[in-house]
Design goal:
heterotrimer, A mainly alpha, B mainly alpha, C mainly alpha, A: 2 domains, four-stranded parallel β-sheet, three-stranded parallel β-sheet, C: mainly alpha, two-stranded antiparallel ribbon, 7 helices, 2 strands, elongated
Chain lengths: 542, 342, 133
């Protein structure tokens, strides 16, 4: 992160637009603000169009000769297939309510990061190609031709949107920029314009079942490491079940939890919880290496790619003959599961309507998808007193909670995580009201933008979230940012180091596991990370 | 100077001159009083229907409501039934609040960075207030105008007039006389609100930057309608009975042009016709579009009930068999269960 | 599709409301009311001002009269031609236009105007004498 401006410099943001009209301001593709172009091998592996090596900084993007025609036809097809797209192209009144709601506009001041203008990038071409006024009046009607410069502008700004939907909450017509970005990215994919941080994980996921390309044996190795770590810290001896036919529940979580700190501790949290439930209540949960990815970067490519990756979940559940699926803590995975999965790959009639075998609770709200969120599952367990929890074991943490965009605005899971937090720790402080729940701010790195090369963009986009954390850090001494998204866990450590040093990042189930008291367990002196518990500093050293 | 609003202003000035000169100088009263109004209404109706049906023709493949509150999940967690509606009633209430009260706009905040230190997001109510005032005042003015299109005048119109003129503002002086005919608040509120929206569009740098000529044109046009109406009622005075004769002629399909109607009336009428014609081809279609916005009008019960995509097609997936074929040996070595053992 | 029928239903409702004036009036032409003048008014030929001025501005004229009489104790009105009149609704206006129902109310009702003259003034002091011929 040495080559990006310091936090003091970066926050000096000018939100006033330039003197030149936006149509006359050419795009400047700037280092640190974009992600590298996709690796042709990944694109080819997926069978997506125009696999070739290219560089966004080059003049020549090596496009197919008839790229304008491809995009025009693609545009037309999507207008017919998606009412959202068509209506949102037509009805925006440019009231500007969305402008300062976008974390990228707040963090960069670039007017083309105002949601309305991001959409206008596409609308201007829509008017030119599909409306009479645009065809007759041209520029004064806000229409313009799709030139190479316009295309570059699309690419640059459609990969500066994290599809967080915050603007859609404030729009009087509910215009959803995520939807527009999704369509725009689909169009770009038709001519081979993707970023590698999306294309390669998608190819990996397609082949190995997870984004990181971890092959089955290595996946098992990772979990075996966690088994050892868990035993070391807690003395618990546990076993993980893989691809077990006839198990009660198939568990799927984003692979980020398996691979990257501090998500790994959340993963250990799941494992400890399942082991507890197995020993206490005989719950039979199995993991799959084939469907070892909850997250779905296909969602950031096209609806079709999303469907191709998501299909594994139901396919594996059917093959294993489980009763239902339990999903881990993840953001966009839950947007896909909540609003797309059943429609795309359902109906999952081979599964049963989810019932908690421990509490008998029927998860009525999931009776069609047959997939329960682990936070809902655990909250239900706590409510029924099925977990023996010692809150004080999280006393060294002072928690605030970040609502992930997708679980907030694409699902509405707001109170379940708070219920768990209040039951596993004593120190919890909310961030200011305009930055949480449905108004939550994005981490700034969602929708496949969590690469290394666009760090400046990520720090800009994460500014509003980080500053809300800073507020509670300074006011209440918050030292830990809890979240229920693997991507959050992967990107927040960088963001916190940059804006709010001294705040760590944790998953919810890491805290659950810290607090969970096993019968006859040995005394715990540290948390899962090996950090001493409050008042145990001396004993932990021994 | 900004070419976008100048263009729109000029367009409205042109419409004014066209109709004023047309009625006053050329005396084309049949054209402006009968032919254009009927043509405008036909274009409005046909255009409105075709736009709505055009939207209706597009599929709704996924249920993607923006959830703005707690979901329905465990029975002991209180659901936000309106902002995250899992029932039709909830959706209807959500849509009503959106359409009648501009609920989403009410959430509007203004972001400010204080000395590069703190960021605040304060409630910013004025856009909501002016938008709401504008739309409701417009509706009241519209309904009030039914007095020109009905005989006998229905009670609800009279009641609305009574309410609208409730504050009997009156002021008499040798120079100025205000209050006769009685002041209707709606017209003044409409003019104030539309002016505020215009000033906002020109003065707020970000809003000015995103504005197109198509954003200024309807504002100028509506200002034109409002000002010509207010001018006729309070300043120039017109032969109201003659005007009603003309409008009743339109409404009963027995069109007629009575003598002595001032040209300002024809300007007013022509502005209204221009607006009617403009609606179906512009952003003003948001009045119909808001009903079709899938982030607001869909049920957020997608995990309990399956939404069907009319064009869902099979895709190429990577099956478990293919996966196992590729990794079988490694899986066996690692002790992972496999379907086919070699 | 299911929602297409909903959209059509919505459109139908919208246009039924939009077309309210058409079906409310049942296509029957309803001519504007004719002014009925009393013999006395006919004989006078000219009101205090021209007919055209009176049609558009009588309400303001009356308002000024009231103001002058009640608040400034001025009782004589001199019109543009120098003719003098006593500023009085009951004694000057209603002297000629003694047929309030025919002369005033018809148009006021037609245009939905509710003047408040009659909040204080007696409807028509001379009606019994020569209001009806």
């Amino acid at each position: 992160m040495s080559d990006i401006p310091t936090a003091e410099e970066l926050i000096k943001i000018n939100h006033n637009p330039p003197a030149t009209d936006w149509m006359d301001t050419p795009v400047n593709i700037r280092k640190g603000m974009y992600c590298y172009a996709s690796n042709p091998k990944s694109v080819a592996y997926l069978g997506l169009p125009n696999a070739r090596k290219w560089n966004p900084l080059d003049d020549d993007w090596k496009l197919p000769e008839n790229w304008q025609q491809i995009l025009h036809e693609g545009f037309k097809e999507r207008l017919e297939r998606f009412r959202t797209f068509k209506v949102y192209m037509d009805i925006c009144v440019r009231c500007g309510a969305c402008a300062d709601k976008c974390h990228f506009f707040i963090g960069t001041g670039d007017p083309k990061n105002m949601p309305v203008l991001r959409a206008e990038l596409l609308r201007s071409v829509y008017r030119n190609d599909f409306t009479t006024a645009g065809k007759v009046l041209g520029k004064i009607a806000g229409a313009r031709e799709l030139t190479l410069d316009v295309l570059k502008e699309w690419w640059y700004y459609l990969f500066q949107c994290t599809e967080c939907r915050r603007c859609s909450v404030f729009c009087p017509y509910g215009i959803d920029t995520a939807e527009i970005t999704i369509m725009g990215r689909e169009l770009l994919n038709l001519i081979g314009l993707n970023i590698d941080w999306i294309a390669t994980p998608v190819a990996n996921c397609f082949r190995t079942g997870n984004h990181l390309g971890i092959q089955p044996h290595a996946f098992k190795d990772m979990l075996d490491f966690f088994v050892e770590d868990i035993e070391e810290v807690t003395g618990i001896d546990l076993e993980v079940s893989y691809q077990k036919k006839g198990a009660d529940i198939l568990f799927i979580t984003p692979s980020g939890d398996v691979f990257a700190d501090p998500g790994t501790y959340t993963c250990m949290g799941y494992m400890i919880l399942f082991d507890y439930l197995k020993k206490e209540y005989g719950l039979d949960v199995t993991w799959s290496t084939y469907a070892s990815e909850g997250g779905n970067f296909g969602f950031f490519t096209s609806h079709e790619t999303m469907k191709r990756l998501n299909a594994k979940m139901y396919a594996e559940a059917e093959r294993l003959g489980v009763k239902w699926i339990l999903g881990g803590e993840c953001g966009h995975m839950w947007r896909v599961v909540t609003q797309y999965m059943d429609t795309m790959n359902g109906p999952a009639n081979f599964l049963e309507e989810p019932v908690s075998p421990i509490t008998g609770t029927k998860f009525e709200n999931t009776k069609s998808t047959k997939m329960v969120h682990i936070v809902e599952f655990t909250a239900d367990l706590i409510k029924h007193g099925k977990l023996n929890l010692d809150k004080s074991r999280n006393d060294h943490l002072n928690i605030t909670f970040h609502d992930s965009c997708n679980t907030a605005r694409g699902m509405g899971m707001l109170d379940e995580p708070r219920y768990i937090i209040n039951n596993v720790c004593n120190n919890f402080h909310e961030m200011p009201a305009n930055t949480i729940r449905e108004q939550t701010f994005c981490c700034g790195s969602g929708s496949g933008l969590n690469a290394g090369e666009d760090m400046e963009l990520r720090m800009c986009g994460g500014l509003p979230r980080a500053h809300a954390v800073k507020h509670v850090h300074e006011k209440y001494g918050v030292n830990s940012l809890a979240c229920i998204c693997a991507l959050d866990r992967a990107v927040f450590p960088d963001l916190m180091d940059y804006w709010v040093p001294g705040v760590e990042v944790t998953g919810l189930h890491e805290m659950v596991a810290n607090a969970l008291v096993f019968p006859g367990e040995c005394k715990r002196t540290t948390d899962l990370r090996g950090e001493p518990l409050l008042g145990m500093e001396d004993e932990a050293d021994e | 100077m900004n070419v976008k609003y100048m263009f729109s202003l000029m367009a409205v000035v042109f419409l004014f001159l066209f109709s004023y000169l047309g009625a006053e100088v050329a005396g084309l009263k049949v054209l402006f009083g009968i032919i254009i109004p009927y043509v405008a209404i036909l274009i409005f109706v046909a255009g409105f229907v075709s736009r709505m049906m055009d939207w209706a023709a597009s599929a709704v493949p996924f249920a993607i409501p923006t959830t703005c509150g707690q979901q329905s999940s465990l029975p002991w967690i209180k659901q936000n039934r309106i902002d995250n509606p899992s029932t039709k009633t909830g959706v209807i209430i959500r849509m009503l609040l959106e359409i009648l009260c501009f609920r989403s706009l009410f959430r509007n905040t203004k972001m400010k960075i204080h000395q590069g230190q703190k960021i605040s997001y304060k409630l910013e109510i004025w856009l909501w207030v002016s938008a709401l005032a504008f739309h409701w005042a417009f509706l009241v003015v519209l309904v009030r105008h039914l007095r020109f299109f009905t005989e006998p005048i229905p009670g609800f119109v009279k009641f609305l007039e009574f309410m609208d003129g409730f504050f009997k503002i009156e002021f008499v002086d040798s120079f100025m006389q205000i209050g006769l005919p009685g002041i209707f608040m709606s017209g003044l509120v409409l003019l104030a609100a539309v002016s505020f929206l215009l000033v906002r569009r020109i003065m707020v740098p970000q809003v000015k930057y995103i504005s197109l000529a198509a954003d200024f044109f309807p504002l100028f046009l509506i200002i034109g309608i409002t000002v010509s109406g207010i001018y006729m009622r309070y300043v120039s005075k017109v032969d109201i009975v003659g005007i009603k004769e003309l409008t009743m002629g339109l409404a009963t399909l027995h069109p007629t042009i009575p003598e002595g109607i001032s040209s300002v009336f024809f300007v007013h009428l022509f502005f209204v016709c221009s607006l009617l014609v403009y609606i179906p081809f512009s952003k003003l279609m948001h009045m119909g579009g808001i009903f079709l916005s899938p982030t607001r009008n869909m049920l957020a019960n997608t995990r309990a009930f399956r939404h069907v995509n009319p064009w869902n097609y099979p895709v190429k997936t990577h099956t478990y068999e293919e996966y196992e074929d590729e990794f079988r040996e490694k899986m066996i070595d690692a002790g992972l269960p496999v379907d086919k053992k070699e | 599709m299911n929602d297409k029928s909903k959209i059509i239903a919505g459109l139908v409702i919208f246009f039924i409301i939009f077309a309210f004036p058409i079906w409310y009036n049942m296509f029957k032409s309803k001519p504007a009311p004719e002014l009925t003048l009393t013999e006395k008014a006919k004989a006078a030929k000219e009101c205090v001002r021209s007919k055209e001025y009176m049609t558009k501005n009588h309400m303001q004229l009356l308002d000024v009269w009231r103001d002058k009489v009640v608040r400034h104790d001025t009782r004589v009105y001199v019109n543009t031609e120098g003719k003098e009149f006593k500023m009085s609704l009951s004694n000057t206006c209603l002297d000629c236009h003694s047929n309030k129902a025919e002369f005033c109310d018809k148009c006021h009702d037609y245009a939905s105007v509710q003047p408040y003259c009659w909040d204080c003034h007696i409807d028509n002091p001379k009606e019994k004498n020569d209001g009806k011929q």
